[in-house]
Amino acid sequence: AQSVTQLGSHVSVSEGALVLLRCNYSSSVPPYLFWYVQYPNQGLQLLLKYTSAATLVKGINGFEAEFKKSETSFHLTKPSAHMSDAAEYFCALYNNNDMRFGAGTRLTVKP
Amino acid sequence: GAVVSQHPSRVICKSGTSVKIECRSLDFQATTMFWYRQFPKQSLMLMATSNEGSKATYEQGVEKDKFLINHASLTLSTLTVTSAHPEDSSFYICSASNLRGPSYEQYFGPGTRLTVT
After folding, report:
1. What is the average per-residue pLDDT within B69-94?
2. Distance CA A95, CA B86 (A)
3. Is A36 on the interface with B (CB under 8 A)?
4. Which of A33, B2, B7, B22 has the fewest CB within 10 Å, making it most exposed?
5. pLDDT tens-digit profile of A50-65?
6. A window 77-106, beta carbon within 8 A of B
C-alpha cells in the first residue's frame, strides 16, 4: 500500500525566513511525488514534481524539494518566505493511476 | 495550456434535489478524469475515476447511485449529486490527465463549493 504523511498540520514562519514543509512517503515501487499549493476556495496548483530524474527538484515561486530514498522523504523548502506563500500545501504520491494526498500543511507567514 | 474548468463554482440547493457539476478540459483531451471531495481543512479524498466512454470506478465507500458520473467525451465529465442532503455539502474538485501526456500529470479544476440547505 502507498501512503503519504505530512508532519505538521500547521507551520508558521516569519516573512523572509526559511520554509520547510515535511513529507514522508511509503511505496512498494519507485514513486512519482508532487507538491501542490491550494489557496482558499481554489483548486490545486502544481508546485513541483519528482519523476525519477534529478533528486533535487526546482519548482515555481522559488520552491524546491529533494527526494531522499534512504529517508523516504520529499520535503519542500523555500529560502525566504513571502506573504503570498500563505496557503495550504499538499504532498502527493502517484502510482498506477492512483494519486494519494497527504493531509496538508497550512503555512502562515507573519510580517 | 492544460486548463481545467468547473461549473458552477458555487451552488446552493435544497435538500432532496439533484445537482450537476461539470468538469471540462479546455485545451486538451483527457483520457481520464478524477473526482475528489474535500471537507473543510482536510485533504482531498478520491471519489471516483472516470474514463471516456466507460463506467466510472468508484472508491470504497462512495455510493455510485448517489454520485453519478458521466464521461461522455474526451473533454467533459459530469458529477451529479442525486437527492442531496446537508452532509453532501463539500468542496468538489475534478482533475484530468492528458491523452498525450504521462498519466501521472493531473491538471486540477478550480473546484465547486456545494451547500445543501
Report:
1. 94
2. 34
3. yes
4. B7
5. 998 789 999 999 999 9
6. 90, 94, 97-99, 101-104, 106
Structure-block grid coordinates of residue A99: 494519486
Least confident of A82-91, B54-63, B97-106: B97-106
Residue B1: what pLDDT?
66
What Å distances lie between residue B90 and B24, B56, B83, CA to CA?
20, 20, 15
> Is A42 in Cβ contact with B106 (below 8 Å)?
no
Contact between B44 and A42 using a beta-carbon 8 Å cutoff:
no
Q: Which residues contact A48 (CB under 8 A, 6 or more apart)?
A: A34, A35, A57, A58, A59, A60, A63, A64, A65, A76
For cell 490527465, the residue is B97
| Placement of cell 484530468 in the chain | B96
